[in-house]
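U., I forgot to send this yesterday:
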Amino acid sequence: MNPQNKDAKKTVVIVTYYWPPAGGPGVQRWLRFVSHLPDHGIKPVVIIPENPTYPITDPRFLKEVPEAAEIHRVPIREPYKWAKLFSFKKTQKISRGIIEDKRQSMTEKFLLWVRGNFFVPDARVSWVEPVSGFLENYLGNHHVDALITTGPPHSLHLIGMALKERTGMYWMADFRDPWTSIGYHEKLFLGNKARKQHESLERKVLNLADRIIATSYSTRRELQEKTSKPVSMITNGYEPEEVQVSLTRDFTLRHIGSLLSGRNPKNLWRVLKELSGEMKGFRESLKIELAGVVSDEVVDTIKSFGLEENLVLLGYVEHREALKLQHAAQVLLLLEIDSDITRGIIPGKIFEYMASGRPILAIGPTSWDAGRLLREAEYGQAYAYEDYQLLKSKIREYFISYKEGNLKGPDADIAAYSRSALTRKLAALIP
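Result:
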């Protein structure tokens, strides 16, 4: 990691909930920005929770925090600690974003209703006042050029709003995901009062912030329609790393990351079942490997197509291991929920997938932003859930290339998505 630049000309305060030892993609965006900002003469000051309830942890990320980084920890009170008294397993799933569409117990429905209607905009809202008070005092004693809040959790933007109103400082709101149009809101049993609160808070944030940052084309367009403030797009990215692994001997289709109930492309499983009976050696070679938290519904569907012996559940893996799995896979699966409200989601893993040089089989909603990104990067395309024949043709093509020993990804230039290049874009926005 790069040391902090002692000759930094600017200082920026970054408020983020996800920070090492948190695991998952949410932590990486700002961990990497913090590492690269000093290269552009900008000193980052990071505000994080002192005692967070992270659903997933990856201790290896602690080693990647810059030693000279200025980090301040502010205590937080979270409802998930008390919710565990009702059901530890259900609480863990909810905090990870795994909300089953079927087999919901009364306890889970109750927890979702409480979460949706009593904690607006989210379960970390109690952190707003402590951090706002801390930062108001900090700003009285230190020169800061800009404040950046990143969500989800979108309650962190209320911290930026409070500081903007109290001090008038320059504030940038980073939207890693949409707010009022985010997919899981439909599963939280929101009442009219809660919905109106979300809409009101989002509107205030978008109109008070000096600049908005989005991570996808659709989210940028959605936010531009709601505010006259400038909206910039800075995607997630990848960190160039040397990964020495050999490709798997099996015809391995790997997915890295959580698979929610809605990320369940039945036509893919159907294609794999049919090809298992039509192509010599396909069933014997096929491995469907899923690394991360996987919904029971996804597992049950795969088994219903007779693919139980081909399925391997790896569980959560640390980031370094995930990189090895990506580079060693024959084909990488990129799956998103088939819904209009998920078109604007570009999974963070797509950039590391491209950096691995392996073929990507992407399946998601029609007009998916991830498909647009793959096309613009000249790395391939995305398929819709109903594209049965196209999927079958592509997987047949992949398997033939695998048998011939020449299955590989396209030779694409993706340097624009490196964390270093993306930080350069971010630095240019800081006044």
